[in-house]
From TrEMBL:
Membrane topology listed for this record: Single-pass membrane protein
Cross-referenced Pfam families: LRR_1 (PF00560), LRR_8 (PF13855), LRRNT (PF01462)
Cell compartment(s), UniProt: Membrane
Keywords: Leucine-rich repeat, Membrane, Repeat, Signal, Transmembrane, Transmembrane helix
Main location: membrane
TM segment ranges: 177-198
UniProt similarity note: Belongs to the LRRC3 family.
Name the UniProt record assigns to this protein: Leucine-rich repeat-containing protein 3
InterPro entries: Leu-rich_rpt, Leu-rich_rpt_typical-subtyp, LRR_dom_sf, LRR_TM_domain-containing, LRRNT
Highest taxon of source: Eukaryota
Annotated ranges, domain LRRNT: 4-40
Amino acid sequence: MGFACPKSCHCSERNGLTVVQCSSRNIEEIPSDLPHDTVSLLLSSNHITKIPNQAFKNLPWLQELDLSRNAIETVDAGAFQGVTESLRVLDLSHNHMQSVPKEAFARLHAKISLSNNPWHCECTLQEVLRELRLDPETVNEVSCHTSVQEEYAGKPVIQVLDSGINFCNFHHKTTDVAMFVTMFGWFTMVIAYVIYYVRHNQEDARRHLEYLKSLPSSSQISKDFDTISTVL
């Protein structure tokens, strides 16, 4: 059976390989001391919150991986490196996942269950799901808990996508609106500055003109000079 069985688990043999039963053992992390020849790893109903990079890299024979009914929120991009070719069944149902990186399931050939997670339906999730071989028995239980468009919350993701909805378009539209709002804000600031500048200069020009008007004209000075000469 290769390496010793983890203390918190029970190991048995199947066709010369090892089945590791670790379900309902209050485990908080994926064990690192698993037998090298593990073919089936059952970790359901524990308290695991994360699948780190290369968590199963030393298990080249792994075919079945059950991580259902945990508290998994995070799946690292390289979580399944090393088992992408061998893995046949992957159960991640009944966890706390809202999103996963596109790279996490890259090149996986396994039948995957992602049902009963609080998925946030947006562009990345759409791209992930289109590349996966989802378990047909639970595919309609993969639902949008939240969505970039509130009207799709509570609906099965595949049903929404099959209706022609493209979440990536919503992402681009949201980005375009944000850019427009930003540009409009800058434009408004520029216009406000120009208006302030013009009004400020108009006020200065008006004061300067009034000052010039208050000065005696040359004809008035000439008349005053003639009057003084006559008196003298």
